[in-house]
Amino acid sequence: MAVTGPESHTESSLWPAQWLRSIARLPHEEQTWIGLGHTIPNGDPPEPIADTRFIGVLVAVPFWMPEEFLELTTESGETIAMMFLIPLYPEEMELKLREGPAALVPGFDAIGLQPALDIRRRNAASS
User: Fold this and answer.
1) Domain spans in the chain, listed from the N-terminal domain onward
2) Is the separation of the CB atoms in 117 and 87 below 8 Å?
3) pLDDT (tens digit, 0 to 9) for every residue of the chain, 127 residues total?
4) Do residues 86 and 113 make contact, with C-beta atoms less than 8 angstroms apart?
5) Do residues 55 and 93 touch, judged by C-beta distance below 8 A?
6) DSSP helix, strand, coil percent of the chain (3-state; round to 5)
């Protein structure tokens, strides 16, 4: 995940990697699973992540990848599904919880959501 904007090596600039690591560990630590359309809030009640307005993430299909790359079968026969995380604003999280993940798609299309992280992207729930 690339971060756009001023780069520094402060704690607040490391949150994307920290979130990826935490979410990768979540199924093992909590004996659960993560799937497409799941949202993971930053606390209960959710608080802004680092110095952004994002309060959690949505697990989504990496829409920019060709379909044949969305799953990987290992030599042992296990299937690994490719997913990516979309940081969500409070309004986006509310929309997803109220109407489901598909309700976010028109707004993401309207803002031209890109695979690179942009902490200044427009809010898809207000598009």
Assistant:
1) 3-126
2) yes
3) 344 444 444 556 899 999 999 999 999 999 999 999 999 999 999 999 999 999 999 999 988 888 888 999 999 999 999 999 999 999 999 999 999 999 999 999 999 999 999 999 999 998 6
4) yes
5) yes
6) 35, 20, 45
